[in-house]
Structure formats: C-alpha cells, structure tokens
Design a protein that fits this description.
This protein is 34% helix and 17% strand. By secondary structure, the protein is an alpha/beta fold. It has a single domain, classed as Arginase, Chain A (3-Layer(aba) Sandwich), CATH 3.40.800.10. The strands form 2 sheets. A 9-stranded parallel beta sheet has the order 1-5-2-6-11-10-7-8-9, with helices on both faces. Strand 8, helix 5 and strand 9 form a beta-alpha-beta unit.
C-alpha cells in the first residue's frame, strides 16, 4: 500500500508544485552555520502589566508563514532563493524574571558575537524583552539607534512594579545603554500614556511622533527624517515593533487594543522604508497574544512584516 500521500505535519494544507510557502525558507539551526537572516523566539510575557499570552506568539507567527508564498510581485523578488536560520526559542525561567532577562541578553549577545553577519528578527514576548535584547544588540554592534513603532512610550518608572513591558526604554536610557536622542517613537496614541512620561521623553531628547503626525506628515517623511537624524549618530539601527501601534480593527490579538491606530498598509510601508537603510540590522516584534486573536489576523500581519523586511534587505544587498 502506497505511503506517498503522507506529508510533514504542519506543512501547508494544499501543495502546489509551482508555489513555495514562506515557512519553507525557514531552516532550523544546525549547530554550526547561520544565514544572513535569523529568527530567535523569546517567549516571555509574565512581565506584562496586563494579562498576556504573548509567550505563545513565536510559534503562532512561525505557523502563519505557511499561509503565504515567497513571491513579492511588486519587486519581482522570490524569497525561495534565500534561507532564514531559526535558532529556536530561548528557554525562560519559570519564576525568576531577572534570570530570564539575563538569558535573553546573554543568548542574543553570544549569538551576534558568533554570527556577526546575521540580521536577527526577534519574536517576543511582551515589550519587556526589548530591554535585554537591545542591551545585547548595543554590546555587540556599537552605538544603537532605535525606531519604535508603538501606541505607548514604554517609559514607565520601575519603582511601582519593577521592570515590565511598560519600562524597557526607560530602563535602557536610565542605565546608559541607549541615548534618548537615539530613540524615535512612531504612532504614540491619545489616552494611552500619561504626561509625566511624555515629559520624560522630551527631557531626554526622544523624538516622538503621534498618530496625528503619522496622518498629517505621512509615514514616508517620518521615516526618512528619522533615518537622516539617526544614521550619522549611531553604528546600527534596531526596529522595535509593538503590534499595538495598529488600530484594534487590524490587530485584535494585542493585549492593549485601542482605536485610532495605524492601518496595516501604513505599518508595512513604514517597515519597508526603515529596512531599506543599511544600518538597520535587527528587529523585534512584540505584544501579540494569539490566545485572543481572531482568525490569526495579528499573527498574519507579523508574518507579513517579516517577509517585507527580508525583501528590503535582499534588495539592499543586491545593489
């Protein structure tokens, strides 16, 4: 009896000989080599100040890659000619959050040190993972600039509850890892912050673009101005994407949903504009809770972010 109709569990439901699914270019790390692009899962969400199942996001985003092909019609680029190394997930400590942060920092630092040419795409987790991730990035890749897509400043104090998903950029600045003038925040939203944290941002030289700025100036101008501002001051630029920068209509799988945010097309354009710069060599995607998502809508956008990011970096490398 033939066994030829068996397929690997988790593969696309329908197989078309002329279509390569995006998950097929993701290759598990073999323990020695790494490609120019890599994925690292950081499944930590216990440090969230609100209920969050963001620890399940790395698996959900990987799964959604199987929903899309590798072909980018607008630029006539097929990603099937390229590979992305999947380093798997960093194991979190069950109860010791500081130990978990140390594991994130040490693992990413060692990985970047060993594979200096790889561009990591870090899948959170809540936004608290950006503190150790960017700390590692700054250690290995010099003075870092950050472009943060977010509805929130994430500049909360640490006295009222320690390090959390609301404190990563406050922690980075207070510890001298990130210069406030090297942080650009895009998509900050009404009724999602408080004035003391906006004042902290202004005092420390953070560039803040609200959603009104996004609507009135346009995402292209904002990104161009941000890159021009950062590129001469830093050695490398890191994208930190909090999925709640999106309007709740586009991202129901965010713990902190709300109206008035970006649409998905604007976000994808913004990611493409940033990724096209040669100093952009890392990114994280955070605050996506698959347990409250609808038809994987939010995970699907995250998958598109990854694919569009890869296309722009490949276009840059081919020049």
């Amino acid at each position: 009896m033939s066994l030829s109709f068996l397929k690997k569990a988790g593969d696309a439901v329908f197989i078309d000989q002329h279509v390569t699914k995006a998950n097929e270019i993701i290759k598990p790390w073999n323990g020695t080599d790494a490609s120019n692009f890599s994925i690292i899962g950081v499944p930590l969400s216990k440090t969230s100040i609100s209920h969050s199942g963001a620890s399940f996001a790395p698996a959900s985003i990987r799964k959604m890659l199987s929903s899309y092909s590798t072909y980018h019609i607008e630029d006539q680029i097929d990603l099937k000619e390229h590979e992305v190394t999947d380093f798997g997930d960093i194991t979190m400590h069950v109860t010791d959050f500081e130990e978990s942060r140390n594991r994130i920092k040490d693992t990413i630092s060692n990985l970047l040190n060993q594979y200096n040419d790889t561009i990591p795409i870090i899948l959170g987790g809540d936004h608290g993972i950006s503190f150790p991730s960017i700390s590692a990035f700054a250690k290995e890749r010099g003075t870092v600039g950050v472009i943060q897509f977010d509805a929130h400043h994430d500049l909360r104090n640490t006295e009222d509850g320690g390090r959390s998903n609301g404190t990563p950029f406050r922690s980075l600045i207070d510890e001298g890892i990130l210069n406030g003038e090297h942080l650009v925040q895009i998509g900050i939203r009404n009724f999602s912050n408080s004035s003391p944290y906006t004042e902290y941002g202004i005092e420390h030289g953070i560039t803040i673009y609200t959603m009104r700025d996004v609507r009135e100036l346009g995402i292209s101008k904002i990104i161009n101005d941000s890159l021009e501002q950062l590129s001469s001051k830093v050695d490398s630029i890191y994208i930190s994407l909090d999925m709640d920068v999106l309007d709740q209509a586009f991202a129901p799988g965010c713990p902190a949903i709300g109206p008035g945010g970006m649409d998905s097309a604007t976000l994808l354009d913004g990611i493409c504009y940033v990724a096209a710069h040669p100093k952009v060599t890392g990114m994280d995607i955070v605050e996506l809770d698959p347990t409250i998502d609808f038809r994987d809508m939010t995970s699907r956008i995250a998958a598109h972010v990854i694919l569009n990011f890869l296309v722009e970096k490949i276009k840059l490398q081919s020049k």
